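Q: What would this chain look like folded?
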Amino acid sequence: MVRVRRVLWLVLGMLSLSLLLVGLGVYTTTRTESLSVSGCTSGVILTLGSFLGLLGLLLEENRKKLLTAAIVFLSLGVIASFVCLLIDGVGVVWNMDMRPLRAGRCQYYSSGDGYLYENVFTSVTCWTLKESCSVTVRSGTCYCCDLYNCANGGYLNNYYKFVSVSSCEAVKTLYVLIWILVGLNLVAFFMGILTTAVLGSIKDMV
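A: My prediction, written as C-alpha cells:
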C-alpha cells in the first residue's frame, strides 16, 4: 500500500509535467506563424498515459488493463518527447540566430493602429555590403535584414522574419519559451521512462 502511494505521487508529478507541456506548448505555438513548435504533442500523449495510470492505481476494477494502456501511452509519449527534442531543439532553436535581435538590428512593421486586425503587406529595403534588395513583409512582423540573402532571395538557413508578433522583443521571449519547452521535454523523457518502468512493476504484481 505504501509503495502504491509513492507510485501515485510519481504519476501525479508526471501528469502535472504533461499538463505544463501542453499549456506551454500551445501558448508558444500561437505566438507566431513562422515557427512550427511541436512540444505540446508529447504533452498530450503523456497526459493521457498519466491519467490512465492514475485510474489504474485508484480503481480496483480493470486495474491491469488500465495500467497496460497507461504503459503503452507513456511509452509513446517518451518517444514523442525525444522527437520533440530533435524538432524544437535542433530544427527550430538551432536555426534561430538571435545576434541581430540582441544587437537591435531588426525592425518591426506594424502598419499602424488602424489596421490592427488586417493583413497589410509592404515592401522594405534590405541593405548588404554589396547590394540592396526588396523584401515583402506583412503587418505585425519582426524582420532581420542581416539574415536575409539578397543574392538568391532567400534566407541564410535562419529564420529572418517572425509573423504575427507584437514586437521584436516578443521574439526574444519566444526564444526563451522554446528553450524552456525543450528542457521540459528532456525532463519528461527521463521521467516518462521511470514512470513506465514503475507502473510495469505494479502491473506484474496485480
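The longest strand covers residues 121-127.
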